[in-house]
């Protein structure tokens, strides 16, 4: 089983572990000088900026070591390469063009609009050209974002022209190291859509969308940045709204041309209906997949891996409610310590708490970064009790941050 994963992904290890539990031999294709290849699995170092070369390298490895049974991409940055590998080897896959549309927000927005799927009004901005004329006629508030980043990185609300100009310059700095010229220079400006925000997880089997979970996001996400915090399932939306969400996600998948594998979507619901904010051909990010328990103990990664080899596991979920809090980074600086962890773990219904950033490491908040300080997991009899447990546990924590002093570069003369 080939698992294609970017360097630093939260998702690589859960997929490798699940593959081993299923009796598969995981092979990890990863980029980055310090990737986890050879530590957790056999694998290959690939160059993300040269997809054709990466594809040839993987194909050559298959000729040397035997065929693959399936391939899975763990994150937005890896799904297109995974689709191309699967297409070349005749494995279960989505059309490469459909995966590219799902990864690129500008292409996705255009496709949804052309197929009549409700989404925000939008306009593209080109950072290579003066912005003044490009902003004429825009409505406010609006949301500006890069076309190919994830986890809310670089997503900023603007309420007027000065705020939008400042946001564009801030995003320009975030995109400095992006290789692709379109992804480095094109921004998307969308209408701000009010309403309740939800995350949706599902799997496509030969074009049929199977809904796995709808997550409520009880914290209001109104900007200026859109940091994810609490997810709770099952959703407290009424049944009719949940059915409309399912139908809208299905239509969006059809519009993209997606037919196989995991689907993760973000949407808003208000009096006008369901609005698609994002839809990706991958699983939910971070460590959120730990909330999924199906049947007799298998999880989301098990379901996705078995799908990749043509099997269909039952997705019957237990009746308990579950939730996660992605611990926000409170300020930039150096993490000294996190106090109150023991007390937080003792809160009723809290299942686990992990701190992902070590003491002494730099903390970078949104919109520049896309990492979390850690995660709190809870399970309980109702979504309300789970949400309360997450908030109580978070209130126990005291995150001690020291200033980060960066040396100034002296200019000679």
Structure, described:
- This protein has 413 residues and is of the alpha+beta class.
- The protein has helices spanning 12-21, 51-65, 76-89, 96-103, 105-114, 131-134, 161-174, 181-185, 239-256, 300-308, 341-345, 383-395, and strands spanning 2-5, 27-30, 42-45, 71-73, 122-126, 142-146, 156-158, 186-191, 196-205, 208-216, 230-233, 261-270, 273-280, 321-327, 333-339, 350-355, 362-363, 374-380, 398-402.
- The chain folds into three domains: 2-100, Rossmann fold (3-Layer(aba) Sandwich), CATH 3.40.50.20; 120-191, 2-Layer Sandwich (Dna Ligase, domain 1), CATH 3.30.1490.20; 196-330 and 368-392, D-amino Acid Aminotransferase, Chain A, domain 1, CATH 3.30.470.20.
- It has twelve helices and 19 strands.
- The strands form five sheets. The chain has a four-stranded parallel β-sheet, with helices on both faces. Strands 5-8-6-7 form a four-stranded antiparallel β-sheet, sandwiched between helices. A four-stranded antiparallel β-sheet has the order 10-9-12-13.
- Helix 2 crosses helix 3 (76-89) and helix 4 packs across helix 5 (105-114).
């Amino acid at each position: 089983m080939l698992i294609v994963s970017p360097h630093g992904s939260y998702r690589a290890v859960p997929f490798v572990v699940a593959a081993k539990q299923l009796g598969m031999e995981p092979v990890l294709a990863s980029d980055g000088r310090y990737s986890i290849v050879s530590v957790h699995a056999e694998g290959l170092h690939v160059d993300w900026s040269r997809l054709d070369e990466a594809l040839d390298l993987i194909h050559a490895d298959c000729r040397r070591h035997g065929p693959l049974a399936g391939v899975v991409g763990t994150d937005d940055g890896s799904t297109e390469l995974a689709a191309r590998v699967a297409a070349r080897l005749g494995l279960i896959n989505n059309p490469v063009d459909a995966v590219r549309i799902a990864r690129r927000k500008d292409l996705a927005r255009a496709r949804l609009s052309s197929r009549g799927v409700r989404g925000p009004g939008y306009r593209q901005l080109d950072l290579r050209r003066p912005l003044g004329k490009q902003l004429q006629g825009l409505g406010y508030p609006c949301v500006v974002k890069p076309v190919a980043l994830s986890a809310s990185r670089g997503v900023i609300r603007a309420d007027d022209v000065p705020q939008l100009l400042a946001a564009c310059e801030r995003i320009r700095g975030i995109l400095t190291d992006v290789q692709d010229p379109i992804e480095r220079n094109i921004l998307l400006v969308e209408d701000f859509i009010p309403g309740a925000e939800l995350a949706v997880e599902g799997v496509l089997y030969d074009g049929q969308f199977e809904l796995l979970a709808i997550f409520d996001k009880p914290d209001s996400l109104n900007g200026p940045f859109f940091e994810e915090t609490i997810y709770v399932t099952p959703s407290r939306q009424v049944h009719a709204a949940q059915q409309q969400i399912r139908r809208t996600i299905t239509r969006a998948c059809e519009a993209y041309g997606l037919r196989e594998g995991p689907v993760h979507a973000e949407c808003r619901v208000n009096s006008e209906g369901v609005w698609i904010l994002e839809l990706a051909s991958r699983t939910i990010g971070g460590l959120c997949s730990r909330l999924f328990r199906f049947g007799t103990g298998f999880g989301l990664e098990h379901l996705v891996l078995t799908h990749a080899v043509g099997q269909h596991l039952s997705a019957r979920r237990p009746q308990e409610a579950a939730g996660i809090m992605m611990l926000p980074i409170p300020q930039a600086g150096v993490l000294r310590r996190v106090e109150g962890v023991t007390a937080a773990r003792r809160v009723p219904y809290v299942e686990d708490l992990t701190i992902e950033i070590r003491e002494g490491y730099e903390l970078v908040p949104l919109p520049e970064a896309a990492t979390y300080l850690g995660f709190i997991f809870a399970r309980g009899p109702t979504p309300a009790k789970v949400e309360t447990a997450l908030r109580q546990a978070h209130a126990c924590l005291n995150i001690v941050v020291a200033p980060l002093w960066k040396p100034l570069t002296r200019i000679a003369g």
